[in-house]
Design brief:
By secondary structure, the protein is an alpha/beta fold. The chain is built from 17 helices and 10 strands.
């Protein structure tokens, strides 16, 4: 690690704010309520006015200390719309009152879409809150896991809310979609379903698994990189479409990074993660998805009522997350695609035996996907551009051979103890 990375004071430019502590559906793969963590159900149902005041005060304090002039609030849950319309009016007003003019607040919301109607869209338009909706593609794929508390699928209600938002004159931009990858569904049917719905912006997420709770063995019965195979089918269709209008963030990040662009993306890449999560009770956490690593795993004792964001960024788990693409496990540190992969998403590296000193449970998938995309990008570049860069084709098998050869002579990284300090 270079001197700057060793001596810098980590900063935060975005907060995921859990404004509602309950949800109106019961997704079986939910990292908050169905991954073995019991702390989420102990949270207040809604963030209090006092906690909001403490939060925006801490944000102002932090931004002024670090010369940050834009700060993003991602309003989250549970299901954030359960907080009620007045909550959002008051939250945005309070943030603007405290932060402006020195710091410009930006707002986004991630909803399951069940409660979306024109009144909500009008409110989000007035408050300039960008909207994201969780939808897993086709009705069949979505209703496998995104269920209500009666065990019934939620697809029809989600799509109804999505279409209202897409057609609303109040929203300046159509909603983006978060889709958790479902390898039991046909990927091209999923892609076609989004196109049929008129979706223009999608982000695919790998399911939240750890080495203690890995992806089902059945998914890898026919391929060691089944999740990559699924994504590659969509990528090849998307990449070579002549009249494509859909943005897919996961693919855009990989193609852009291959070409030398610099993107912030907390599950891939080589940048630092400058994000904190604030629970409904004001608790400050490193990353909410780390709840999938164990009961109470994310609790570090920090709270906006008593701790600054600088304090929270100094906790061990926040430091681990902040540097997760820099302080890599041994295998990741010698991987030829490490600057694009960055070791993958930090929760996917966890095991109770080695802590975070493991490659991602999706290591083979990420290696296969990235090498495939890199070769596709090189194929369409003019030869003179390829000649001027360090780009070169690399097959998945060649990458595996490089890793095996380098591992034989590689010493443990200096930060191995830190990565293993979270083992049980």
């Amino acid at each position: 690690m270079d001197q700057l990375q060793e001596t810098e004071i980590p900063k935060c430019v975005m907060a995921v704010v859990k404004v509602a502590g309950r949800c109106n559906i019961n997704c079986t793969y939910c990292y908050m309520y169905n991954s073995g963590d019991s702390t989420s159900v102990q949270q207040p149902k809604r963030m209090s006015d006092d906690t909001v005041a403490h939060l925006v005060g801490r944000v102002r304090e932090h931004c002024l200390a670090h010369s940050i002039n834009r700060f993003t609030f991602i309003l989250h849950g549970g299901e954030p719309l359960l907080a009620g319309m007045d909550f959002f009016r008051d939250f945005v007003a309070k943030a603007k009152q405290v932060l402006l003019p020195e710091v410009k607040p930006l707002f986004g919301i991630q909803t399951n879409g069940m409660l979306l109607n024109e009144d909500w869209c009008t409110l989000f338009g007035e408050l300039n809150i960008t909207v994201g909706v969780s939808l897993d593609g086709t009705k069949e794929a979505h209703d496998m896991y995104r269920l209500d508390f009666k065990g019934l699928g939620t697809y029809d209600k989600v799509v109804a809310g999505l279409q209202i938002a897409q057609q609303s004159p109040a929203l300046p931009h159509p909603p983006g979609i978060l889709c958790v990858q479902n390898v039991d569904a046909d990927p091209l049917n999923v892609y076609a379903a989004f196109k049929d719905l008129g979706v223009t912006n999608v982000d695919f997420l790998l399911p939240d698994h750890t080495h203690d709770t890995p992806p089902p063995e059945a998914h890898y019965q026919h391929s060691p990189h089944a999740y990559a195979d699924w994504l590659i089918k969509i990528f090849d269709t998307w990449f070579y479409e002549k009249e494509g209008t859909m943005r897919i963030r996961f693919f855009e990040f990989i193609t852009g990074t291959i070409l030398g662009c610099d993107y912030d993306f907390d599950s891939l890449g080589f940048n630092k993660n400058e994000l904190l999560v604030v629970e409904t009770d004001g608790g400050i956490e490193a990353l909410d998805v780390l709840k999938s690593c164990g009961d109470g795993f994310t609790k570090a004792g920090a709270n906006v009522a008593t701790h600054s964001f600088d304090d929270a960024m100094q906790t061990e788990l926040a430091q681990l997350y902040h540097y997760s693409h820099i302080r890599l496990p041994e295998k990741c540190s010698i991987c030829p695609v490490r600057e694009i992969c960055g070791g993958g998403y930090i929760p996917h590296r966890y095991s109770s035996i080695n802590g975070f000193n493991n490659p991602s449970v999706y290591c083979n998938d990420l290696l296969k996907l990235i090498t495939h995309i890199q070769n596709a990008v090189i194929d369409i570049l003019p030869p003179e551009i390829v000649a001027e860069t360090d780009l070169g084709k690399l097959t998945y098998d060649e990458a595996l051979a490089i890793i095996a050869g380098e591992l034989a002579k590689k010493e443990d990284p200096a930060h191995t103890f830190e990565l293993e300090s979270f083992k049980q």
